[in-house]
Amino acid sequence: MFGQVLHSDGVVGLPAQTGGLGVTPDMVVVFGIILLALVLFVTEWLPIDVTAILVMVLLMVLGADGVVNFTQISTAEGTSGFSNSATITVLAMLILSSGISRTGVVQIVGRKMSAFAGEDLDKQLLATIGVSGPISGFINNTPVVAILVPVVSDIAHKGKTSPSKLLIPLSYASMFGGMLTLIGTSTNILASDVSARLLDHPFSMFEFTQLGIIVLIVGSIYLMTVGHRLLPERVPVEEDYVQEYAIEEYLTEVVVNDDSPIVGTTVEEAIDHVEFDADIIQVVRDDEEFIEPIGQKTIRAGDLLRLRADRDTVQQFVDRETLTLSGSPETAAELEPDEVPDRTLVEVVVPRGSFLVGESLESSTFRQRYDATVLAFRSRGETVREDMDERRIRVGDTLLVQAAPDSIDRLSGNDDFIVAHEPEEPDYRSEKIPHAVAIMAGVVGFVAVPWGAVGAALAGATGVAAFEAMSALSLPILVTALAGVVAMVATGVLKPTEIYDAVEWDVIFLLAGIIPLGMALEQTGGADLLGSLVAATGSYLPILGVLWVFYLATGLITGVISNNASVVLMLPVAVETANQIGANPFAFVLAVTFAASTAFLTPVGYQTNLFVYGPGGYKFTDFVRVGAPLQLLLSVVTVLGIEFFWGVA
């Protein structure tokens, strides 16, 4: 440990000698594993949950029970993330959030919000932020955004507003709301567990609510006054999907010649997908239009086919006298048969945990499963229209899908997808809303009640021993959340088989894999070393300045890796830095937690940003343009708020 001198001006001075803390082989190995994890998180060569498992395996192989004891992690410690209270609590909260969503209560609130918003942009922003923010304090903010993306998209289309103006505010507001309570985001739960281990100070349910309210208000004012003006209209108000995705030149109408070799074949057999990048998306015969499922429909001479293909491919068909050009559909209306009342073109967002992640359209057999054709898709700001079948699909990609109404309904009801428009007749368990709300109130309430004070007061008034026992009672969120899961199944809010589908298993494996990494960073002295380096800034910065540096550093790291991973890596360093400069370590824990849970700079640092990336038509720079000023603003607000409520020294 360093010694330190706190000057009268609040600047921390460090003595010239540092105590000889040096880099050991153990630290080098752990830092190497951290560097490998960062590279894999950023490049996505492996899914993030698989990367976390790889990290866990490396820690154990190079640990106390492995080939060499470099990481000092035993097998028991390496697998302890699966039994960690934070992991189990997050699992339970995901199930509870699913139960709430299945009742439709959030969607009902969203429809009220739509009726209020109308065509006024200020009202639309107020409704979007006013609903997503507070709700995210009590339901994990990731499913809140997944639920509200279709609602907000519909508000934009009905209100003649570009969805680009509303969807980033939706994501950001959910992050603000996530900092209202302990259960607002999985990051808070994980940070609470790390804080309990390092400082014996877990978060209470409303530990930082007062600061969360300030962040929510300041952030909301920014989005409503400055933020939306910085957002371009990436999705024009009046344009439809065909024009929005600029696929007019990839859609062609052709007529089947009498002597064409595809006459008598089925639609599925007609085109060799190995040779041609093309799909038959509609068949028109005798003024009757057929859309998916058309794979087994036999092609006849004179049929008009609507193809998704580039000009070169179409020209090859024409040159071979297989087909004759007829024209090109220029709007979505031309691709949606009049006799089909529901949408046939929809945007589908691929969330984390979807079976499509890491697959291609060909390997996933998406078309066969859902009788659906993908006309184009957006991936990390790029619109892909050619050679789609072999492209690996990533979290946040948005597919432009044409399908029959029943197929769209199946997509809407599947947790593997977020359909960016609400179904016409959603199947919600609205009769279970009172049960779900009461259960969530119980989960929160039993944690928030100060049982010790209640028991002591009752014991003092009555002298009854039972009340004295109550004063020692403490119900952690882990217990109430699991009890809530049981209650939701018992009351019919959730079916027993649905609790497994509700869990985002990649999140659970991510937590289980990275928790031992934080332990290794502490045990090998890596946190001490990094803390010493950061503590050096105390020689020319006040404690408040060092705290601000940690906030900014965490925000930058979270912008390129998982928010949960950044908390695990940064909290041990933050606590060690605080100890070395004589600061309040809990203040540093809060700064890291807030920074990790409010990652505005990039679309890849936080899953809610990925959810709105495609439907908003955003580019990577849009998040920087709007998020950078917001991140700087909230860095000042948060650091000053921590100083005011908890003190930094």
TrEMBL record:
InterPro entries recorded: Cit_transptr-like_dom, DASS-Related_Transporters, RCK_C, RCK_C_sf
Keyword terms of this UniProt record: Membrane, Repeat, Transmembrane, Transmembrane helix, Transport
Membrane topology annotation: Multi-pass membrane protein
BP term (GO), one: potassium ion transport
SUPFAM superfamilies referenced in this protein's UniProt entry, alphabetically: TrkA C-terminal domain-like
RCK C-terminal domain residues: 239-323, 333-417
Compartments it resides in: Membrane
PANTHER family named in the record: BASIC AMINO ACID ANTIPORTER YFCC-RELATED
Tree of life domain: Archaea
GO cellular component term of the entry, any: plasma membrane
Bilayer-crossing regions: 27-46, 53-73, 85-105, 166-191, 203-224, 437-467, 473-494, 503-521, 541-574, 586-606, 626-646
PROSITE patterns listed in its UniProt record: RCK_C (PS51202)
Name this protein carries in UniProt: Citrate transporter
Record-level Gene Ontology MF annotations: monoatomic cation transmembrane transporter activity
